[in-house]
Amino acid sequence: MLSAVFVTFAILLDRTKIMIVCIAEKPSVARDIADVLGAKNKKDGYIEGNGYQVTWTFGHLCTLKEPHEYTPSWKAWSLSSLPMIPPRFGIKLINDPGIEKQFRIIESLMQKADEIINCGDAGQEGELIQRWVMQKAGAHCPVKRLWISSLTEEAIREGFQNLKDQSDFKPLYEAGLSRAIGDWVLGMNATRLYTLKYGQNRQVLSIGRVQTPTLALIVKRQLEIENFTPQQYWVLATVYRATTFTAIIRKSDEELAQEESDQKESAKKSKRTVENRGIPPITDLSTGEALMERIKNVPFTVTEVTKKAGTEAPPRLFDLTSLQVECNKKFGYSADDTLKLIQSLYEKKVTTYPRVDTTFLSDDIYPKCPGILAGLKPYETLTAPLAGTKLNKSKKVFDNSKVTDHHAIIPTGQPPVNLTDMEKRVFDLVARRFIAAFYPDCKFSTTTVIGETDGIEFKVTGKQILEPGWRVIFAKPQTNLPDGMTDPDTEPREGDEERTLPTFVKGESGPHLPTLNEKWTQPPKPYTEATLLRAMETAGKLVDNDELRDALKENGIGRPSTRAAIIETLFKRHYIRKERKNLIATPTGVELIGLIHEELLKSAELTGIWEKKLREIERKSYDASTFLDELKQMVAEVVHSVLSDNTNRRVTTMEETVKEEASKKTAAKRKASPRKPKAATKEEKPENPPADEWIGKPCPLCGKGTIIKGKTAYGCSEWKNGCTFRKPF
């Protein structure tokens, strides 16, 4: 008995000698992990206890070296030094006193550690951030990987019980490293190349592997709008029994070809024959008037009445892009705002990992769903019908083959407390989508009635909801939701309006009143952040079908986690501006894309192919060294092509673009608020700029601090504790 006690004591004594260093990506995440591990002693830059030292980064501590740090001659910008391709890439600490101090602490801990646990964000960027720090710190002990999809205590505990080997994530690191090197090689070389060749007055022309094709999408759409020539046409309709029927118009050869192409690409691969009936489009008034005259005294006869029952499945769960799209459409939030808000909700443990590109859940989540639903207390009126029942397990929700590292964004079941108003709105979207996934399909009936008069066919369609099913989750008004958990609109879906038709019988006939309405063809709409995100996701292809969109995601440009930053970069470079929700390319942006003749730099489709290769590196089906060799070859070809351009083209200076933007804003303000007479304005105090209203408000990112004003931007009072909220003036 005594020997057993000594053995136990010896084991405990030995255990205290082993020190495990855990490194998280943020101080707040480190605190959550330390709490679970029982580490309570707060030190400078880490938390210690129970055999663990839990430390943190502030996102990126390291970055790739600058050109002159490889070769001093690369410091000066010159065309003769291009392309700049180092024989071996190196990393360095970011030049910041706070970063340098924290790194020295991490380095000291890692040098003495018996084991390191990488607790970085469970994604490509998180893997890169932590591996670079470990490399720079010279870590030489064994490394484990914590891989979790939420920051709840249960998830962290479960993750530590199932730690993985760091080696399992080498392909993820190689993909992240290839992306970083690819961005460096293309960005550094192309930016210097185009600046020196086409810039003026020391203006830098920033070129990026993803930002330039994204800008090209906006410019292309803008030019389509500017060059659009409206075409006049007329719509022939007739009113029969207080119901408006519209003349069926024959489809053009182009429309038929497009329908056939869509059917081939569609996952369902329907082989139904495309019906093409009706009259040719009415493109002149005299033809329309002649048709009206021809039918006005001929009775209208109902020739077909068809009723078709249909079902509509609940909307997909959210991936990051679809959440950003929805928040932009409903609340006007930018993609960057939404990313910060959903990241904050993840760190507050109420939603799962946000940087995901799948709308599916893995089968192992299914047993946890009743508990998650039970935890959504503000939504008890909606979850009550599901309580105690066997939850529906749809293949449109649960599909292991569609989930890789992480599943769709869902609630964790933790109480949603201490959320800002903006966070509440985002959480509400996520929660309702999750609840709706277990509700029955919506059942509806579609009635189509076709009639004719003097050989001309007319059509009307009506839709009637028979059983709303999941739609009750989004119905208005939404009540009994405490703590401000209200709003988002009902799910707006095209063709959703209910129109119950009178009862028509085949063969019935009677008088009618024809009408002829003048119409004009409309140009394509400018991109909003919502539609641009969708275009980036599908490499510029306009796709509504969910299955087809999933297939095209492989070739999307950028990653879900980086697309918001790309759009923000275009704003900062003054390549685009915003008019209401619309994204408009500035003269500089338009001219820059006009200058670039190399399709590799501006084609969304070609960039999508490169993105696909990066994903294949992650899956070990493509070699990282091959990707980088191809990239270097591409950059060399771009340099040669641009240097061969003998024209004297130049881009409008940025100053001109900024002045033009400022004058447009001033003109818009004057138009919105006309000047008052001088006598009336003398007594008034000047108003604070609208942006100053931010000061003192709760931080929309962390929710703990308040907004403070710095020299160039607004920030959060919790910045010392790791909150990264920043809003430039």
Please give a quick description of this structure.
By secondary structure, the chain is α+β, with helices and mostly antiparallel strands.
Describe this structure in words.
- The protein has 729 residues and is of the alpha+beta class.
- It folds into five domains: 7-162, 3-Layer(aba) Sandwich (Rossmann fold); 178-226 and 528-644, Topoisomerase I, domain 2; 232-259 and 277-313 and 443-477 and 495-520, Distorted Sandwich (Topoisomerase I, domain 3), CATH 2.70.20.10; 320-440, Topoisomerase I, domain 4, CATH 1.10.290.10; 697-728, no CATH class.
- Helices cover 39% and strands 15% of the residues.
- It has a seven-stranded mixed sheet with strand order 2-3-4-1-7-8-9, sandwiched between helices. Strands 15-12-13-14-11-10-16 form a seven-stranded antiparallel sheet, covered by helices on one side.
- A hairpin with a 2-residue loop joins strand 2 (41-43) and strand 3.
- Helix 10 (320-331) packs across helix 11 and helix 15 (529-537) packs across helix 17.
- The chain is globular, with a radius of gyration of 30 Å.
